[in-house]
């Protein structure tokens, strides 16, 4: 019975409309990345010996060195083959030499900061194509805060002027690992639970996903699972508010959700 269910999950992934056709995504809402989320990411990458590329480009500094890797939560969790990848130059990001480490990577982690920096450095370059190649080979892409939002199709809070602006012309395209989705983060911790409504009102085709801190969604194909300490909010234009009047609803840790059908599903 269990093998049969695993087989169905694999077939669903091959026919994905929203999530990746192969591989996995681990999308964290900021804050502390707890051991459960960390272990899930490492397991999906293939264990502590897997080659994982750490991308700190959303951060403020122009340069990063090996000390960044030594301080990382993945290193502290036992990851042995971390590679730092960072540039502010689109020309460098478009070069074969710079993107080469991604060809042998089983995982990529986008650290937090401001998502417009990731757009400026990587969107439309060879490096972005190689990010996608990691998950297409069955690997895992993870990220937190800005590194979560960039994984969506529509980029929220991308404005250079500040992260209070939800929609910013010129910075509305994410990397699109989750097709037709807009991702927000720090949801309850920063009282942002109503912010995605303005995006869905103007783009009713989108599915909005808001993730609180120390919480993650794990996506394989069109199936999403919530892990971590808090909640995930779903924003769907077709959702009819309940007695509380809220135009969104929450998924608790352990909940599973079908991104294509936009409804909760029972755990196998």
Distance between the termini: 10 Å
Q: Could you give the count of β-strands? A: 14
Task: Please report which band the strand proportion falls in: under 5%, 5-15%, 15-25%, 25-35%, 35-45% or over 45%.
Answer: 15-25%
- CATH homology superfamily name: Class I glutamine amidotransferase (GATase) domain
**Total domains:** 1
CATH architecture: 3-Layer(aba) Sandwich
Helix-strand pattern, N to C? HEHEHHEHHEHHEHEEHEEEEEEE
Low-pLDDT parts are 1-6, 8-13
Count of helical stretches: 10
Helical residues, percent: 25-40%
Strand order of the largest sheet: 3-2-4-5-1-9-10-13-14
Specify the CATH class.
Answer: Alpha Beta
Shape: globular
Sheet of most strands: 9 strands, mixed
- How big is the Rg? 17 Å
Structural class: alpha/beta
Quote the CATH topology.
Rossmann fold
Any descriptors?
single chain, alpha/beta, Rossmann fold, 9-stranded mixed sheet, 5-stranded mixed sheet
